[in-house]
Amino acid sequence: MKRVVITGMGIYSCIGKNLEEVANSLYNGKSGIGIDENRYEYGYRSPLTGILERPKLKGVLDRRMRTGLAEEAEYAYMATKAALDHANIDMDFLENNEVGIFYGNDSSAKAVIEAHAAAAAKKDTMMMGSGAIFQSMNSTITMNLTVIFKLRGINMTISAACASGSHSLGLGYLFIKNGWQKTVICGGGQETNTFSMGSFDALNAFSINTKDPTKASKPFDKNRDGLVPSGGAATLILEDYDHAIARGANMIAEVTGYGFSSNGGHISQPNDDGSYIAMQRALVDAGLKPTDIDYISAHATSTPLGDMYEAMAINKLFGNNTVPVSSTKSMTGHECWMAGASEIIYSILMMQNSFIAPNINFDTPDEYSAKLNIINKTKEQKINTFLSNSFGFGGTNSAIVVKKLE
Amino acid sequence: MNREEIVKITNEFLVEEIEIEPELLNEEASLKHDLGIDSLDFVDIVVIVERKFGFKIKAEEMTGVDTLGAFYDYIEKMVNSKNSDA
């Protein structure tokens, strides 16, 4: 089996548009949450969201390349270009080496809704324009990035709800570990437009704590009242260890474990068994004991049931008040299809800078979170190995173990 | 609408929306070979022409419309026939 290392990272998020900005936000507990007034107009119950502007790509990519990019694909382009640059991979390398892509994405609502409106107005599908099909499909990110970056390896979008980004990394890890690919671009992208979250808002799942948007996302806190949706994109370059050594790549960290499971239960309500199995499987894959984990990046989204079940599962596997835990969603909101990838980057930035980012707004524990060692103020601490959890609708669970390279 | 106005509007959207270099625009330019307009660009041009000139291009009417000059002629014919119908 091959060893799998991370050789590049790129991020475009509501807490920063590059690694340095994001590391500063994480260290300072800075929230990226605000209010989108258009959501009131549309009929949302909650206007809260991660605040993120779209990148300006005119003059960067030609018209044909831009036309097929949905909002989340624009974010993914920015994150992926930055990750490739970070990995010292240029177009010459991409044209001479087989590079694959697994990217998490599970919606493209704006593209679908706007294309429908354009056709309906004139009763003519041609009025949708040439980009509609390429923007509307869930695979908008992978289909566009493979063309832009001339990729010739595995090429696939992973749609696994809020675990999409994490599973994309897990699959990239497996493809390299088994020797099927040398380099795979992995990540997750998430649209943030007004159309993107209406159906989720309809479930009363979002916080309505609008008095101070930065305090709305309160994972694990007793007074949490729902999640705050957010988005952007995060990309990691996964590479065969020997391949990375041979080309003199900067090796950032090693992926050593991937665990997965499905709850076989309710469509929206999680349980503790499935997440426990995913975490345990990731530890076994990495050849580690629970005491070897220095930090857990929790999935915790700030919903009453989800956080409770994750707290139960962590407690069951790791024991009372032992391993430090925090949910960066307290600052970023829930980056949904992107979260599993972005949260690996957040944890690596903590590992590189020897701190644990705070689970801001965690003031009052409940019966379950009281049993965890939740870090609510930035803590200076070395991290050698961390575990990152991601869970999604339909009971899909993913857990990834990442280790510092000595 | 006279031909001069049609040429001006058409050239404007070819430059601004289809992003064709202005120096390439002349009556003899081949839509496909000189201007690089492919089948996907054509779909977008249909949308723009509907918005700018108020009629829908039908692919079958474009047979033989190979140059930019022929394209101006086609638009002029369609715009004027629409006006005379009205």
What are the SSEs and their pairings?
The complex is a heterodimer of chains A (406) and B (86).
Chain A: E1 4-13, H1 19-28, E2 33-35, H2 38-42, E3 48-50, H3 63-67, H4 71-86, H5 91-96, E4 99-104, H6 109-122, H7 132-136, H8 140-148, E5 155-158, H9 164-177, E6 183-190, H10 198-201, E7 232-240, H11 241-246, E8 253-262, H12 272-286, E9 295-297, H13 304-318, E10 324-326, H14 329-332, H15 339-353, E11 355-356, E12 373-374, E13 379-380, E14 385-392, E15 396-403
Parallel strand pairs in A: 4-5, 4-6, 9-10, 9-14, 10-12
Antiparallel strand pairs in A: 1-7, 1-8, 2-3, 6-7, 8-15, 11-13, 14-15
Helix pairs in contact in A: 1-15, 4-8, 9-15, 12-13
Chain B: H1 3-16, H2 39-53, H3 68-85
Helix pairs in contact in B: 1-2, 1-3
Please name the defining characteristics of this protein:
heterodimer, A: 406 residues, alpha/beta, Peroxisomal Thiolase, Chain A, domain 1, 2 domains, eleven-stranded mixed sheet, two-stranded antiparallel ribbon, globular, B: 86 residues, mainly alpha, Non-ribosomal Peptide Synthetase Peptidyl Carrier Protein, Chain A, 3 helices, 55% helix
How does this structure look, described?
The complex is a heterodimer of chains A (406) and B (86). Chain A is α/β, with parallel strands linked by helices and 406 residues long. Chain A folds into two domains: 4-246, 3-Layer(aba) Sandwich (Peroxisomal Thiolase, Chain A, domain 1); 258-403, 3-Layer(aba) Sandwich (Peroxisomal Thiolase, Chain A, domain 1), CATH 3.40.47.10. Chain A has 15 helices and 15 strands. Chain A has helices spanning 19-28, 38-42, 63-67, 71-86, 91-96, 109-122, 132-136, 140-148, 164-177, 198-201, 241-246, 272-286, 304-318, 329-332, 339-353, and strands at residues 4-13, 33-35, 48-50, 99-104, 155-158, 183-190, 232-240, 253-262, 295-297, 324-326, 355-356, 373-374, 379-380, 385-392, 396-403. An eleven-stranded mixed sheet of chain A has the order 5-4-6-7-1-8-15-14-9-10-12, sandwiched between helices. A two-stranded antiparallel ribbon of chain A has the order 2-3. Chain A has a two-stranded antiparallel ribbon with strand order 11-13. Chain A is globular. By secondary structure, chain B is mainly alpha-helical. Chain B has one domain (3-85): ACP-like (Non-ribosomal Peptide Synthetase Peptidyl Carrier Protein, Chain A, Orthogonal Bundle), CATH 1.10.1200.10. Helices cover 55% and strands 0% of the residues of chain B. Chain B has helices at 3-16, 39-53, 68-85. In chain B, α1 (3-16) packs across α2 and α1 crosses α3 (68-85). Chain B starts with a helix and ends with a helix. The mean pLDDT of chain B is 93. At the A-B interface, α3 of A face α2 of B.
